[in-house]
Every structure is written in C-alpha cells, then in structure tokens.
Design goal:
heterotrimer, A mainly alpha (289), B mainly alpha (316), C alpha/beta (249), A: 289 residues, mainly alpha, 0% strand, B: 316 residues, 15 helices
Chain lengths: 289, 316, 249
C-alpha cells in the first residue's frame, strides 16, 4: 500500500509539475495581455513533436534544448500576425481566435505525424529504475522534476532580476504607466508571449517521455492548467505554481482510493476554492472584475 | 406600416422557418439538417441572451446542452418513455446545474468568468465519460427513442415523421424566442442591458449586479438545456461530446458570426455554420482545420457578424 | 438626528491614510460642498459613503441606521445616489432608456418580468417628467453616448435623481466643462435642490460653483478635515488659504 501511495504521490507531483509549467505560461500571457491562450496545448504538442523529429539527428539533449526554442519562435510569429490585432477588443475575440488555432494545431499535427501515438525515445540510462524497492522511481522521473524545478527557478529569476522580467511584472500591474514610461508595449507583449510558449514547448518535450506522444497530448493538460490558475489565484504566478502541484497531487491521490474520480477531483477542488475565496488561494481580489 | 417596420424581420424569420420542409430540399438541404439547425440556433440564442444582452461570456454552455440531452435520454431509457417528461427533466437538470455552478462563479468577470465556465463544462464531460454503466460512456447513450406525442384527441408521430419532428422543435424554438424577447423588453431585461453597458453605473442605480447575472445565467442555461433535449431527441442518441468545450466554442462562434447584439443573429450564424459543416465535412478529412480557420477568419475579418452590419437597435 | 452622520471615518491603503478620522453630518435640504487640494481624499470619502469600498474604521449612519457594512446597491435602496467624476451612463442605450432603468428600479421593479399597461404608463410619465426637468426632452431618443459632455452630465444627474434619493452625492459635476455648460449644470443643481426634498453633497474644484451653491463647506487636506463652516467662514479661514496657496493655487 505504501508503495502504491508513494507511486501515485510521485506521479501526481510530476503531472502537477507539467500542469504548473503550462499554467505558468498561460498565466504570463493572461496577466499581461488579457488573452486566454487556448492554443497553448497545441504549442505544447508541437514542442514534443519537434523534439521527436529532431532527436534522430541531434539527440535527446539537443532536442530538449532546441525544440522549445523553435516552438517559442512560432509563438512570437503567431502573436505578431494574429493575436496582436485583437488587443483592446473584447476578450471574447482573442479567446475565439486561440480556440480556432487549437483546432488547426491538432489537425495539423495529425496530418504531419499521424493520429496514432509515436514512439518517443528517452535515453536508456534515464529510463531505468534507481531502486529495486521503488521500481517507479526512474531516472527520467527524477530528471523531469529537476528540469521543471530549474525552469521555474529560471522563470522567477528572469522576472525578478532582468530588465525584461521587471517590465513584464510592472506591465501586469499597470500597463498604461509602463507604456507612458517609454516601454514598447507591443514588443513587451510579444516577448512575453514567446516566453509563455517556450514553457509550453519545454513541458511538451518532457511530458511526451512520460505520457506518450499523440496529437491530443495538449488536450489532457490544458483544462487542468486552467484549474491550476483559478485555484492558485488570479494574477499570482507563485499561486499558479502551487495550484498546479496541488491539483496534480490531489489527482494522483484520488487514483489510489477512487480511480473513477481522478479527473473530477480537480474540478471539485476548483469549486471549493471558488466558494471560499473567489479570487483563488493567492489571488488578488482586485482582479475579479 | 409601423407594424411592418417593428415586426418585419420577425415576420420574415417565421415565414422562412415555417416553410423549411417545403423549400430546403430544393437548395440541397434535408429536413433533418433543418431541424439540427434550429436546435443549434436555440442553443446559440441562449448563449447570446447572456453574451449579447447581459455582456457576460460563457464558454461552457455545452454543459447545459449535455445535461438537457442526458437528462431527457436517461428519463426515457430508465424512467418512463415519455417525450414531454424527458423534456421536463432534461430542462430541470440543466437549470439546476446552472443554479449551482452560477452561484460559484457569479463574482467573476470577463476572461476569468469565461475560463471558469470552460473548466466547469469539463466536469460533466468526464462524468459522462467515466460513469459508463449509466451513461454508456464513450459509446454514448443508446437503446431509447423519442416517443410520439399523445395529445388525447390526436397523436403526432414525431418519431416516424421527420417533418412532424421539425415542427415540434420549431414550436419549442418559438416558445423560447417569445419568452426571451418578452424578458428582454421587461424591466428585468433592461437591468441586464444596463449591466452590459456599464456595470458600475448599474450597481450604483441599486441593481444587485451579481444576482441579476446569476438569473440571466440560469435563464440562458435553461434554454440551452431545452436545446440539449431536442438535440438528444434528434438522433435518439447522445454521447459525451455534447459536453465538450468544442461544442461551447461552436455556440459562441455562431453568435459572433450572426451578430451578437441582434436577437436573430445567432439563428443566422447557426444556419451558416450547420450548412457549411454539413457540406464541407463530407468533402474533407480535415474538417477540424477548416473549422479552426473559419474561427480565425470570422474573428479577424468579420467580428461584427452578419447582422452587426445593419442597425444596432439591441432590443428585438 | 441628521440624515447622514459620518463618524470618525478612516480609510488606509497600505501605509497611506487616504481618509483620516473624518466626521460629518448633513441635514435634509442642505447643500454641502467638500473641497480640498488634489489627493485630499475627497473621492475616497465619497466612495466610502456610497459603498464602493469599505472603511478601515468609523461608522456611516443614514437616518440613524448603521449602513457601514451594507453593499452599494442596498445603500441606493435606502436613498443614497451618486454621480462619478468621469461620467458613467449607458452609452449605447437611448437617453430615455437611461432614465427608464433607474425609474423602474426605484419603483421596485428591477426583477419584474413584465409590466401592466397602466404601470408602464405611470413609469413613462415619470421618465418624461425627468427628461423635461433635465432639459433632455428634445434628445430623448438619441443614444446617450452621442450627446455632448454637458448633456451626458445632465443625463447622469437625472439618472441619480430618478432614484428619488434622500442624499445625492455629486463628484465634480462641472469637471471638464466650458463656461456655458458649467452655468447650465449649476442651474440644474440649484433647481433640483429647491424642488426636491433632498440633501446634496458635492465635490467641486471650481470655487465659483462652490461659493455660489453651498450652504456649508467642508475642507479636506491630506485626508483630514481642515475646516468646516459657511462659505463666509471658509473664505476668511487662514488655514484654508495656506492649504490652497501652498499646494493647489
């Protein structure tokens, strides 16, 4: 029993880390630009497929490095060509646009790489268990946790200590003032979007090694990411991180005791949070309206 | 003359709708497609009650479509083979669901409201998917049929006769549209317009904004679940995709395509959408891409919709 | 017992004290002005009374009843109406509809799904009366968003008045107006003050307006009451002169 619980706890933590990574990107974009990027799951899947195609040539490590960056470049282009047109309009429109993009992504991936899941190779030495007693504690699982932790730490360092990061944070609080101070808001939003998509691409490259790679890989992650944002709190990136891990672990634990409710439990958590504190655990009351 | 000016559009809409079984086949349609169109139009109009006339964006109305559909289907399958009872219970299920969810989200606004409605829609998707012993799971709820209507003095065969079923759905649409139009012209309806126009002003005129948005949400969901009931009756079938966010998104695009400040806009949007889907999906395997492209094109080039181009008188 | 009694009202934003221990009582029929340099806390004070935000400390009483914790829309039902520094109307509805909505709310009809013919006629008559009173009858079918700044202001004031308030809060009613528009609005306020049985509290920067209208004046500076009295008292008060000469003038 202990093993089962530990297994699912670890699984939940890892899945939660993916939720968090994806939700952090979504949050960045939502907070600065007021856009819910429904195509985020599509970007994630694209990152994974790019890594899959690059791996034979440049190996796993090269792909881990390069695929998220390529995905981010596509993100910059999409923001520039399409999403940018909709700033300042009713959020309805950007939502519909990214919704449409999500469909195009899914269908496009299916067209290029096929509807079936593809074999996604991770380095052999990472795939083997680290301990005989805890067979599920594979090197890859530990490795994923480390990469996600590094990525999150990197994100908070960028936001806290670089010029770009400080501008993003300031823009999130008060875009008008930032713009009056001479910051080019268009460029800022573009780079911020790219940063968010980079995180999605990275999550994709990592997640494919654990969840398997098919065109719908983003689908199973996007709803929980929304929930992570709502549970963690509107406008709070640390909240989003905590929210992601929390619902991941909760889903993992539910698998042990009541497997049919694995998916439903995160929505129950969301409902509870909304009843108790509508702005979320670490949320800012002022962002409700 | 004033009568024509005020009610001309409504009159035209009803003449066209009443005559669908007679002219639709000649332009390449069939009665079943006509029925599907008015059912989806009812759902889109319910979304527009909230979006166009209250200014609140729900991206999760498939939840109520699904609740209505499963409520009706399960009633007939497990409880009593009665079309009206299925309708009643289906609408009740959707309305009660909306009451509970509405109460939890009514303090949120804008994108956050939309995001939470999307997320809540998925709960029902997973329930329908997982609880297969009752819902039929991924295969859908089958093994039941809508039942001919027995009015005492006569019997209407809405099961065997497609045209009769079309008119049954049209009666439901007429009743719903009538109620929505009356509500929008009432003092309550005007408070909804007030909230859409300027929430702060509305609050400081003594309107309890959260309560009114909740009511509007519940009313809108009630009509969406009625559409769900008809949706299930249409094919005597419902599967979890009725709950899926793709369905919710389609309702919103129908509203935008038709023109979201106009009463009949969603009907036009639904007609264009359903006919396009019917024609194109038989040509291509890449319907999803076309659908996505369609969303992008509407948003970028046609954000005001078909009826948005004419007048802006918001009341019907 | 006064109509409005504000006791030791305080509101802090972090370390900033926007409103500091302000007390005020206003009688029915009185026209009170609140003046003070920019950032003196006047609008915050209004926001506290009207229920847009809650105070950190202190009490607000209307007719003796404690309303400190009531949400905004319930305060409206008890008789507090307000306008905003930046005009808040329903831009894509006609002027008539802009007034119709508060009239119906005031008649207790906000949840009514239908209206009898006779009731509808009564309501329409009241709207016509308000349109005439505000000088808006000629433009009643135009969209409110299309009106001139002055007429939008008049619309907003008449919307507040349509609620039959006992206390009317006007936040800088002449802000951003030319001389002619200012004169029109002042005339409107004076007329309403005479014809309706209510108390008016207004925030104003234009001293000609303040001294032309107010019975009594309260001066705020840095969130606290600097002086209180009749226009003559205030004009003679040295503290007030220093405050204005020092920071605003």
């Amino acid at each position: 029993m202990t093993q089962v619980i530990l297994f699912n706890l670890l699984n939940g933590l890892i899945v939660g880390a993916f939720y968090a990574l994806m939700a952090l990107g979504l949050s960045l974009i939502l907070n600065l630009s007021g856009v819910i990027n429904f195509a985020h799951g599509g970007f994630l899947a694209l990152g994974a497929y790019l890594a899959y195609s690059l791996m034979p040539t440049i190996g796993f490590w090269g792909a881990l490095l390069l695929a998220p960056i390529l995905t981010a470049f596509l993100g910059l282009a999409v923001e520039r060509l399409l999403i940018r047109r909709l700033y300042g309009r009713d959020p309805l429109y950007s939502l519909l646009l990214t919704f449409g993009l999500a469909f195009i992504f899914q269908d496009g991936l299916r067209y290029v790489w096929g509807a079936q899941s593809v074999p996604y190779q991770i380095p052999g030495w990472l795939a083997s268990p680290l301990s005989m007693d805890y067979f599920f504690l594979t090197g890859y699982r530990v490795f994923m946790m480390i990469v996600v932790a590094l990525a999150v730490a990197g994100l908070f360092l960028v936001l806290g200590y670089t010029r770009l990061g400080m501008r993003i944070r300031a823009g999130t609080l008060d875009l008008d003032t930032v713009s009056v101070l001479g910051v080019n808001v268009r460029v800022l939003r573009n780079l911020n979007f790219g940063l968010g998509i980079y995180l999605a691409g990275l999550a994709g490259v990592l997640a494919a090694g654990m969840l398997g790679l098919s065109p719908t890989i983003g689908d199973q992650l996007i709803m929980p990411s929304f929930v992570a944002i709502i549970v963690g709190g509107l406008g709070s990136l640390p909240g989003t991180l905590v929210g992601g891990l929390l619902i991941g672990v909760a889903a993992g634990m539910t698998t042990v005791f009541f497997p049919t409710a694995t998916e439903a439990v995160i929505y129950v958590m969301m409902a509870l949070v909304l009843i108790v504190k509508p702005s979320g655990l670490f949320g800012d009351e002022g962002r409700l309206r | 003359m004033t009568f024509l000016k005020n009610y001309g559009v409504t009159l035209l809409v009803w003449v066209v709708l009443l005559a669908v079984p007679f002219w639709f086949p000649y332009v390449g349609g069939y009665t079943g497609l006509g029925t599907r169109t008015i059912v989806m139009a009812l759902a889109a109009m319910s979304v527009n009650f909230l979006l166009g006339f209250t200014g609140v964006l729900s991206f999760g109305h498939a939840a109520y479509l699904g609740l209505g559909a499963y409520g009706a289907g399960m009633t007939i399958k497990y409880l009593l083979p009665s079309t009206p009872l299925g309708l009643l219970i289906g609408v009740l299920a959707g309305t009660l669901g909306a009451m509970a969810i509405g109460a939890m989200i009514v303090r949120l606004r804008g994108v956050y409201f939309a995001m939470v409605t999307i997320a809540f829609g998925q709960v029902f998707y997973f329930i329908a998917f997982r609880w297969s012993s009752v819902t039929g799971g991924d295969d859908g709820l089958t093994g039941w049929k809508r039942v001919p209507l027995d009015l005492g003095f006569t019997r209407i065969d809405i099961l065997g006769n497609d045209v009769a079923f079309y008119y049954f759905c049209l009666v439901c649409l007429a009743a719903s549209a009538g109620i929505m139009a009356l509500l929008l012209r009432s003092p309550f309806g005007r408070t909804l317009l007030a909230i859409r126009e300027n929430e702060r002003r509305a609050r400081f005129l003594g309107i309890s904004v959260d309560q009114h948005i909740w009511l509007s949400f519940v009313i809108s969901a009630a009509f969406a679940s009625l559409a769900g009931v008809l949706y299930a009756y249409l094919d005597n079938f419902v599967d979890p995709r009725a709950f899926h966010w793709q369905q919710s998104g389609e309702f919103v695009i129908m509203v935008v395509l038709g023109g979201m400040r106009s009463f009949w806009g969603p009907l036009i949007g639904a007609a264009i959408f359903e006919v396009l889907q019917d024609k194109l999906s038989s040509f291509t395997d890449n319907w999803m891409s076309l659908l996505g492209l369609f969303f992008v094109l509407v948003v970028v080039f046609f954000p005001r919709g078909v009826l948005g181009a004419f007048g802006r008188k918001p009341t019907p | 017992m006064s109509l409005l009694e504000v006791g030791n009202l305080t509101r802090r934003f972090g370390s900033l004290v926007a409103v500091n221990d302000v007390s005020l009582s206003v009688e029915t029929g009185e026209l009170r002005a609140v003046i003070g340099p920019n950032g003196a806390g006047k609008t915050t004070f209004f926001n506290l009374i009207s229920g847009m935000m809650s105070p950190s400390a202190g009490t607000i009483r209307l007719d003796g009843a404690d309303i400190t914790a009531l949400p905004a829309h319930k305060r409206v039902a008890l008789g507090i109406a307000r306008t905003f520094q930046v005009t808040e109307i329903f831009p894509e509805l006609s002027v008539r509809e802009n007034l119709l909505i508060p009239v119906e709310v005031a008649a207790g009809l906000r949840l009514a799904p239908w209206l009898s013919r006779s009731r509808a006629q009564e309501i329409a008559a009241r709207v016509d009366e308000l349109l005439a009173m505000g000088g808006l009858a000629a433009m009643s079918d135009r969209l409110a968003g299309e009106l001139s700044h002055g007429d939008q202001r008049a619309t907003e004031i008449m919307m507040a008045l349509a609620l039959k308030p006992r206390l009317l809060l006007l936040d800088e009613p002449t802000a951003g107006m030319g001389d002619q528009e200012t004169r029109d609005v002042v005339r409107l306020i004076r007329r309403l003050h005479k014809s309706e049985n209510l108390a008016i509290v207004l925030i104003e920067h234009d001293m000609r307006v303040v001294f032309g209208l107010a019975d009594r004046i309260m001066v705020l500076a840095e969130g606290a009451v600097l002086a209180e009295g009749t226009p003559a008292d205030i004009a003679a008060n040295e503290l007030v002169q220093t405050a204005y000469l020092g920071s605003a003038a």
